[in-house]
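Model it.
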Amino acid sequence: MTVVSPKIDLREIEFRVLPMRTRFPFKYGIASLTALPHLVLKVETEIDGILTRGIASEGLPPKWFTKNPDTTFGEDLPAMLGVIGHAAELTLARPPATFFNLWRELHEEQASWATAEGHPSLLANLGVSLMERALLDALCRRLGSGLHTVLRGNHLGLRLGEMRPELSGAEPSAFLPERPLSSVRARHTIGLGDPLTPAEVNDDNRAADSLPLDLETCIRTYGLTHFKIKVCGNLDLDLPRLEALAELLGPGALFTLDGNEQYAGIGAFREHWEVWREKAKIRALLDSGLLLVEQPAHRDESFSPSVSMDLADWPDHPAFIIDEADAGIDDFPRALALGYDGVSHKNCKGIVKGLANAATIALEEEKRGRIVHLSGEDLANVGPFALFQDLAMMAALGIGHV
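Modeled.
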């Protein structure tokens, strides 16, 4: 059977911006999110002679793509818009090509430009990821097929060996599930400032609607079973909060811990971990429900030589994955070599890179003989475009909760 990988000719790009506000402040890492611009990208393409439109969107939050405490969001936003605009210009200038060929040339040119301009890889890839999402949407429309069918049938024309030599010959049909998931479970984020009980809701954090706000009411209303718990790296704050959560969540809850780069390294996280485990309630919570720990160390320290030693000296450590540190094509393989146990997928980090990571995980699981984690982590996504494209990708990858 011959796989159809149509050539895509990008004709036109249109940007629109929708200002958004959160229901209540969302505290993560060094940021507190209350408002952000939501960028919508619409493209017009010609695919095998047929005009086809595609769409993608992305919220531009403070202090995620870059995490410099010395700059304001007003200073960071032009850089985010700049990398998106540059990626759009590069793609418009390319001659018609298959999806993968377009992506490869865009990724290489954007990376070279970003290095010269001093933009970090995670930020530079934001522009690439928006373009690939919009073009992929157009391709799915042109083929009249869902995302999973297009990906698994390799209608993108992927040649993963050109990204990572060890993936030479890897086909999506070998590492993607035979069928996409029919549902994806919500893993409810418990932000650093979120009220846990109705008693903690007050005039300062009350939302201007009648929807559930505190964690206890959300669990009761929505039947939540999976959670993402933010920790801040301050024992005086994390310890009592984890004790309160242990009582509230109970033994049946499944959860991840998100360090949001708040620890100096794996060793520093271990010090906190051991203090947490001195508390019987927290120890029981961790033993019964912890799935993995996401990005405890700052992205700049994630590949420090000390990581390998710290993990080797901690044989019963929890599963650690990288998130913000998964910026470049080679970063996840580097993380695996140091002893990390997985990586997150977010569409804002890239569709093609996410597929390469899935292929790498399949290969690594054969070597290790155990699970290597691919988690879904895009917790502030909104509809009508970005959220559903993200969920479709999670279902295609077989990620059961996000």
